[in-house]
UniProtKB/TrEMBL annotation:
Domain Hint: residue ranges: 161-281
Name the UniProt record assigns to this protein: Hint module
BP terms from Gene Ontology: protein autoprocessing
High-level lineage: Eukaryota, Sar, Stramenopiles, Ochrophyta, Bacillariophyta
PANTHER family xrefs: HEDGEHOG, PROTEIN HEDGEHOG
Bilayer-crossing regions: 432-451
Species per Swiss-Prot/TrEMBL record: Seminavis robusta
Pfam families in the record: Hint (PF01079)
Top-rank lineage group of the source organism: Eukaryota
Keywords: Membrane, Signal, Transmembrane, Transmembrane helix
Amino acid sequence: MMTSPTFLLLATLLLYLPSVSVANYCSGGGTVNSLAPGQKQQFTCSGTCYACLVSYTVSINPSATHTYYMNFLDNGGNYILDATSTTQGATSGGPSLFGDGDGKSDLQLEIECANSAGNCDGMSVSFGFVNCACAPDLYLHSSCSGTRDADCRTEPKTPSSICFSGDTTVHVQKEKDSVVVPVPMKDLQVGDRVLTNSNEKDPYMPIYMFAHIDKTVPTEYLQIYTTASITTAMPNTNFSMSAPLEISEDHMVYVVAKNGKTTGPVPAVSLKVGDLLLQKASQGEEEKQAAMVTMIRHVTRQGLYAPLTPDGTIVVTDEKLVASTYVTVVQTPPMPLLLHQADMVHVWLSPLRVACLLGGEWLTGTLCENNHNEQGMQYLVALGLDFAKFMDSRGQATRLLLVLLSVIVTGPFRILELALGPSYWNYSSSGGLPLLFLIVAVSCVMFRRTTGGRHGTQKRRGEE
C-alpha cells in the first residue's frame, strides 16, 4: 500500500503537470450479416471531435457481390459524408477531415444494402477518427496524426520559428495596370506593392526588404483556419476549406476583442479556437470585419519568408487577414503600458527603412536585397534580434534603459518618416537620397536660424 508521504508527493507533482485534453481517438466497426435490401446497419465510434480526421475500410467476402451505400452521420443523425456505392471487394477511404467546431461526440458509419435481390452479408466494417482541433479554452501544442489526437493544453507553446510559409498568399498590385492579383509568398520580390492595413487612400505599399528568407529550409508553421476560410459544401457539418493562413508561432497577427476593439498584434502561438482575427475592411467600410478561428494545426513546409512593409502590416490569404510583419522579439516587454512590441520594432527598423526606401538603387541593392547571412537573415536584423535577446536576459530597469537608448538613436529617423508623410518612399523615383540630404540640410539651416540668430546680432569685441 502507498505510504502517505509518497502519495502526497505524487499528488503535488500532478498539480504542476500541464493540463491536456483527454485523448479522443476511437475505433469502431463490426460485421454485416443478413441485411435485407433497403435495410440499414449503423456502427458507432464514441469520442469528442471538434474537427475529425476519419479513415474507414469496408471488406466483402471475395465470393460475394453486393451493392451497398455507405454514409457517415454525426451524433444528431445528420449525414456528414457523401454516400459511397460499392458492388464488390473492399473499399477504403480517408483520412477525410470534417466537423463543425462544436465538439459533438460520437460518429456513426451506416451501411445500407442496395442489392436488387438477396441479403448483404459477409461484410466487415472498421473505421476510426482522431480529433484535430482544440477546444476554445485550450492551446495547440502538436497536431493529430495516425491514431494520435491533437495535443491541447492550458498554456501556450513556446515559439520556435519565424516567418510565413511560401504558400501563404498576399495581394500584389501590378504597376502597369494597377490590377491586384494573389501571389504566393515564395514568388514575392522586393519592390512589389502589397496590400497593407494602412488607412491611407492607397493602402498598397512596397516590400522594402526581406528580414528573413530561405527557400529550402524545412520549417514548421501553424495552419490557422477561420470561418472565412471554411464554406459548407454539403449540408450540416462537412468541411470544404480554402487555403488557411500558414504562419510561424511567434509571428504576430491582429485580434479583435469581444467588445469589437482591435488589440495590438499577438503571437500566433497564443491563438485559440474562437478568437477573432482582424480582416481588411473593404474600401469605404468603417465597421471592423473579423473571422473566427475554427481550427489550428501544425504543418511543415519548405522555405520561410518574412517581408517588411513601410507601415509594418501585411494582408494575407484570400480572406484578407491582417498580420504584422514583425515577430515577438522579447518574452518580457520592458514597457508594456507605453510601447507595444510591434511599435518598438517599427521604431528600431526606421533607419534601415529610410535607407532602403530613399537610398537609391545602389544602397537598396547592397543593403536591402543582397545582405543576408547563411541562414537567410538580413545582417542588421540578426544583430537587432541578438540585441533583443541580450536585453531580455537583463533586469527590468536595464531593459527599460536599453529601450530608451535605442529609441534615442533610432527615434529621429522615425520622426523624419512622419515628417515626410505616409508615402515618402515615392521620393525614391525622383532623387531618393539626394532629396533626403536636401531636406536634412534645410532643416539644419532653419534650426541654426532659430537657435543661433540672437548670437549673430551681438557685436563682436572691438566693434563698439
